[in-house]
Design goal:
There is one protein chain. By secondary structure, this protein is an alpha/beta fold. It has helices at residues 15-33, 48-57, 107-117, 192-203, 210-219, 223-233, 240-253, 269-281, 296-310, 318-341, 354-366, and strands spanning 2-4, 7-13, 39-44, 63-73, 76-85, 95-103, 123-131, 144-148, 154-155, 171-174, 182-186, 206-209, 260-263, 288-293, 345-349. Helix 4 crosses helix 11 (354-366) and helix 6 (223-233) packs antiparallel against helix 7. The N and C termini lie close together (9 Å). The structure holds inosinic acid and magnesium ion. Inosinic acid binds next to strand 4, strand 6, helix 3 and strand 9. Magnesium ion is lined by residues 43, 46, 101.
Length: 368
C-alpha cells in the first residue's frame, strides 16, 4: 500500500501486466498501419510513459508528437478541458493516431476530436492504454484499447493523483474508505491509554474507551445512560445491546475519523460477535486486535508507583492488582483465540520506552 497526499492506494496491475497491455496496442496498430507512417500524438502529461514504451514496441516508420490538455483536478474530471499545447502543424493528409493513457468519461476525448476536426488530416484514430467502459459516454468509437478497467481511480505509469504517482512503474488503485479499526487489549498498567493517545494522533483515530463512554452517558443522563444505570443499580450486567448502542453513537458522532480504537470492549466472544455485526452494518470491520503484553512483576511495580502518585486505592494493593490480572487473563484468553482464528490477533511487547512501544504498534498497523 502507498500513500499519495492524503489518500492510500493498493497495488492493482504489475509492471509486466501494464507492458503486456502496451504491447497489445502496439501490435494491433502495427497490423493496420505498418506501411502508412502514422503520426502518433501523445496526450500529455499522463501518456508520456505509455508513448515511450509503445514506441519501443512499434518498430515501423512513424512520427511522434504531443498535445497537452487538462481536465482533471484531484480525483474527478472537472468537466472543463483546457488546451495547453496545440496540434502539430504537419498533419495535412496524414494518419493521426492519438495515444491516451486513459479514457474515462470521454470529455478529454471530445476536446481532442474537436481539435483535430479543424485540421486536414487524412484520418484520425484513437488508442488508449486504459479505458473505463462503465463511465464512458460512448460518443466516439475507441479504435484501440490496451485494457478495460473498472471505474476506480488509478495512479502510476504516468497517471497521477494531484501530480504525484506518475513515476510508479506499476498501477495502483485508490483504496476507498481506508479505515483502521483496532481493539486494544492490555492489563492494567500496560500503557494502553498512553499508546492510544499516540495512535489517535498518528492515524486520525477516535479512541473509544467503553468505561469513559459509560461514565459520560450516565453523568449526562442520556437515554442510554439512564438505561444502563437501571441495570447497574440492580447489580446486573448492562446488556450488550445497550453497550453496542452507545458505541454506535460514538462511531456516528465521528464521521471523519480514520478509524476507531475500541478499548474495554469486547470482553467476551459474544460481545465480539455483536461488535462485528454492528460494524458490518456500517460497512466497517475490525482490522486488528492488539494486546500490549508485559511481564506481571514489571506491571505490578509500575502500578504500585502509579498508586503512590495517584492515590488510586486499587493501584496500591498488590493482591488486588493480581486479582485484576487474573481476571484479565481469564477474560481475554477466549478473545485471543477468537481473533487469532481470524488472523487478526497481534501481540506487542509493552516493555520499553513509550516511543519504542509506539513504533512496535505502528509496525503492526502499517502492515495491515
Ligand atoms: P476524461 O476526460 O474523463 O475521459 O478523463 C481523461 C483524463 O482524466 C485522462 O487523460 C487522465 O489525465 C485523467 N484521468 C481519468 N481517470 C483517471 C484515473 O483513474 N487516474 C488518474 N487520472 C485519470
Ligand atoms: Mg491524460
Amino acid at each position: 500500500m502507498i500513500k499519495l497526499h492524503d489518500k492510500y492506494f493498493k497495488p492493482f496491475l504489475s509492471e509486466a501486466q501494464v507492458l503486456t497491455a502496451v504491447k497489445k496496442v502496439a501490435e494491433k496498430i502495427a497490423k493496420d498501419y505498418k506501411d502508412k507512417t502514422p503520426i502518433f500524438v501523445g496526450v500529455l502529461n499522463g501518456a508520456f510513459m505509455f508513448v515511450s514504451d509503445f514506441l519501443k514496441e512499434y518498430q515501423h516508420p512513424c512520427e511522434v508528437s504531443f498535445v497537452k490538455l487538462s481536465s482533471y483536478s484531484g480525483l474527478s474530471s472537472t468537466g472543463i478541458v483546457e488546451t495547453l499545447l496545440d496540434v502539430p502543424d504537419n498533419v495535412e493528409g496524414r494518419s493521426i493516431i492519438i495515444l491516451e493513457d486513459i479514457i474515462d468519461t470521454g470529455r478529454t476525448l471530445k476536446e481532442l476530436v474537436h481539435l483535430f476536426s479543424n485540421t486536414n488530416a487524412k484520418e484520425f484514430k484513437i488508442a488508449t492504454l486504459f479505458h473505463k467502459p462503465s463511465i464512458y459516454n460512448g460518443e466516439y468509437v475507441i479504435d484501440y484499447v490496451g485494457m478495460e478497467i473498472p471505474d476506480k481511480f488509478i495512479v502510476g505509469y504516468g497517471l497521477d493523483y494531484n501530480e504525484q504517482g506518475r513515476n510508479l512503474k506499476e498501477i495502483y488503485q485508490l483504496k476507498e474508505n481506508h479505515m483502521i479499526n483496532l481493539v486494544l487489549f492490555g492489563k492494567p498498567g500496560a500503557g494502553k491509554g498512553t499508546q492510544a493517545e499516540f495512535l489517535k494522533e498518528k492515524y486520525n483515530l477516535k479512541h473509544i474507551s467503553t468505561g469513559d463512554v459509560f461514565r459520560y452517558n450516565i453523568k449526562n443522563g442520556t437515554e442510554l445512560g439512564t438505561l444502563a444505570k437501571s441495570y447497574i443499580d440492580k447489580g446486573e450486567l448492562v446488556p450488550d445491546e445497550v453497550t453496542i448502542s452507545m458505541l454506535q453513537d460514538e462511531v456516528e458522532k465521528n464521521p471523519d475519523a480514520g478509524g476507531f480504537i475500541f478499548d474495554g470492549f469486547p470482553r467476551t466472544t459474544t460481545q465480539a460477535d455483536a461488535l462485528n455485526t454492528f460494524l458490518e452494518s456500517k460497512d466497517m470491520k475490525i482490522d486488528a486486535t492488539i494486546a500490549l503484553e508485559a511481564n506481571d512483576e514489571i506491571l505490578i511495580q509500575r502500578l504500585l508507583e502509579r498508586g503512590k502518585v495517584s492515590g488510586r486505592s486499587d493501584d496500591q494493593d498488590e493482591s488486588k492488582i493480581r486479582f485484576r490480572f487474573d481476571e484479565y487473563n481469564e477474560k481475554t484468553a477466549p478473545l485471543k483465540e477468537y481473533y487469532t482464528t481470524q488472523g487478526k490477533f497481534h501481540s506487542v511487547n509493552g516493555i520499553g520506552s513509550i516511543e519504542e512501544i509506539t513504533e512496535r504498534l505502528s509496525a503492526v498497523i502499517n502492515s495491515l
